[in-house]
Amino acid sequence: MTVLQIDIETYSSIDLKTCGVHRYVEAPDFEILLFAFAFDDDPVTVVDLTDYFGVIPKDVMQALRTDVTKTAFNAAFERTNISRHFGIDCDPRFWRCTAVHALALGLPGYLEGAAEVLKLDAQKDAKGKALIKYFSVPCKPTKTNGQRTRNYPHHDPDRWQQYIEYNRQDVVVEREVRRKLERFPVPEKEWRLWALDQRINDRGVRIDPVLVQHAIACAEQYSERLTIDAKELTGLENPNSIKQLKGWLAERGLETPDGLSKEFMPALLDAAPDDDTRKMLEIRQEMGKTSNSKYDAMARTYCADDRVRGILQFLGANRTWRWAGRNVQMHNLPQNHIDDLALAREVLRSGDYEMLELLYGAPPFVLSQLVRTGLIPSEGCRFIVSDFSAIEARVIAWLADEHWVLDVFQGHGKIYEATASRMFGIQFETIVKGHENYKYRPFGKVATLACGFGGGAAAMMKMDKNKEIPEDQYDPLVKQWRNANPNIRKLWYRAEEAAMEAVRGKTTVKLAHGVRYRYEGGILFADLPSGHSLAYPQPAIKRDTKFDKDGLIFYALDERNKWVPQRTWGGTLVENLVQAIARDCLAENLMRLDAAGYPIPLHVHDEIAADCLRGFGSVEEMTGIMGQPIEWAPGLPLSAAGFECDFYQKD
């Protein structure tokens, strides 16, 4: 099979990192500067497209237009740029992404990191960042460059030649990475899913620019009001300055922590020596709620047709293969609890901010409630939104053979009530509104959400968002939940033992329902029933001094982007398995819904939104598809619920 390896260098006045590649290529001055390529093992050629005589060879253009396999590191970037520059359709079915392959093996998803971890002879040129900054992004006029806002090759021919060689070296390194990873291929089914993911990202989701701009303006106006109030109260030139505000508070007898962080605010308010101090702390607290990042991200990234694109990252959570959010970051949107969302969003769209505040309270609250509604269906369409019901609770019960939980899901489905009944030994039928035993439902709910992966009191506290449970009850409830779910508890220890046995013996150990741990080529794989495998690079058994026993470690990137050993245990291993299998259930249904003609612009966690013409599709059909059995997961009871809406929301 012929493979065309590609890497490009580009220019655009739009910032790539903050606006995304689809907005980036819409800039009037966007262009591809350098096009490096190599067929198979051929030497790398670089075409300088800024040169009058720089022309892409006919065989390369033919390959771009046909079913020849094209590959790049972060192929979404190359696909989008090439499609725009040359005006051709870059069908993702005929592309492969080496970054995705690296993520699938638990490796860094950026070229330099992958090459370093793989210890390749060929490494990425370290000069690249400076060259990109010089040629590929706008520059500021200076004394040395005059009034120009962009650097062209003729401004520094020597540096341009370095850029050409940098582009050439990227193809060399990318090809070496690809060859190194070929020993562990990504299943073809996953490449088909990636192609669908690319089409979903290319389609994008429409936004309401009127609502978005008014949300930004409303937040700015409110923030200015708070600043004026703070200035009048304190006399400070800049009450937003932590240093100035700490000084003012100290003068009034209130010593404060370094950052005036929100977690200290309740204690500071209690310690406020007078009304003015308390009022200023309340203003400061309110200022902290005026973040408008989601609306700002929508405003930065939406394209000429009012659609935001590229907001889903395939294998973004590479430990579980789940998608991650990009640009607008859809995976951590606040929920909406306003009864009449339609009225609230229309008041905001009208620009009547005073009425908005009168009806719904302080702007930060209502604006956070309306973030989701900034996403709207295409013209003549409506959203059909459907999500799996308690998918992780179903998967972990299936994996652990916790039969009483499976019976609940195959029957009435009320897992919180059933869990409370089993934990406290009370009749299930009595846990209903109006009965005194209904007070036990929150205990069952919080325990179900917190304890499945070995969570203790801290996990209970985190999940008890409404503070319905006394803190001194967390530890006893954890024990009660574990006693009610003995097979799930056993699964944590069985998973850890199986993984460690596979590493010690460099062998394969079966766990349950097609899951097995397999050591091969310096990687611990968790083979899943769907056909792909999670990867834990460079695993080893090391003594865990905290628990005085052997434990499992593997290597991964930490929060500082350093490749370091990380310790794991059975509860976390089971969490990875459950989230990965839940992801595979979502993936299976993305493919099914696409085959059934449902246009998908967006999916978040276990929820899928379809952008359907009025008259096409239905909630019943969509939830029915998502509730169908999956061949590789016999006995896993799936169920979905859905609704229709004229703007995105939580039902």
TrEMBL record:
Segments traversing the membrane: none
Biological processes, Gene Ontology terms: DNA replication
Every DNA-directed DNA polymerase family A palm domain range: 368-616
UniProt cross-references to InterPro entries, sorted A to Z: DNA-dir_DNA_pol_A_palm_dom, DNA/RNA_pol_sf
Database matches in Pfam families: DNA_pol_A
GO MF terms held by the record: DNA binding; DNA-directed DNA polymerase activity
Protein name: DNA-directed DNA polymerase family A palm domain-containing protein
